[in-house]
Amino acid sequence: MQFLNTEIDNLTFDEALARIDELLRTHAGGRVVTPNVDHIVQLEKNEEFRQAYQDAALVLTDGQPLIWISRWLGCPIKEKISGSDLFPRLCELAAEKGYTMYLLGAARGVAAEAARRLTQKNSGLRIVGIDSPEYGFEKDPQRVEEVIAKITETAPDILVAGLGTPKQEIFLWKQREQLKGILAFGMGASLDFEAGNVKRAPRWMQKCGLEWLYRLCREPRRLFKRYLVDDMKIFPLAWRYRKDRKR
Fold it and tell me: What phi and psi, each to the nearest 5 degrees, are found at residue 223?
């Protein structure tokens, strides 16, 4: 379904998990992306990011504000499927079906702690590799080769990248040939959440679309520009696409 400046898969949470299971069963590989307001704004100006989205195997909507906008546009999205909610369910699926997983990203030690906690919670979950490359590694072709070699050596079914947006989506898209047969997810801060390094907003704030406010209050210096300057561009953008739909 066309939504603003991207195509999305308009699925419920259970339908999305079934589609992911099918992709894993058939070793189709590819990438799963979860657009939120920030992604939609960045898609307007970042060509590589757009290409990464156009080539994705699955596009699942993350963020209650996008659900509200979809209703206002007259093309309602069935359900919010955030990466942070999807990740634990993905681990449950992997443990149940025997799919192997590789964790890439976050600060040193965070992915390892996330792996420890996830394997404790999910009996049978096999995390076959962990790597937390240094900041900016993606600009060094030799380091990229080393990182990819470590992943392909373990041949995981699932690759979870927590490198931040749009870096994780563009990195996974650029390495798509080397990662054939692996289903890769850009999960942002999910590794930090699972490691207990960063707390998620209370459930009621998530349901009310206020998770951004909770994160802003906790990290105002880092997130001020993103939430209160850049992401405000969603309003004129949504208005423009609404007029285009009417035409």
Answer: -105, -5
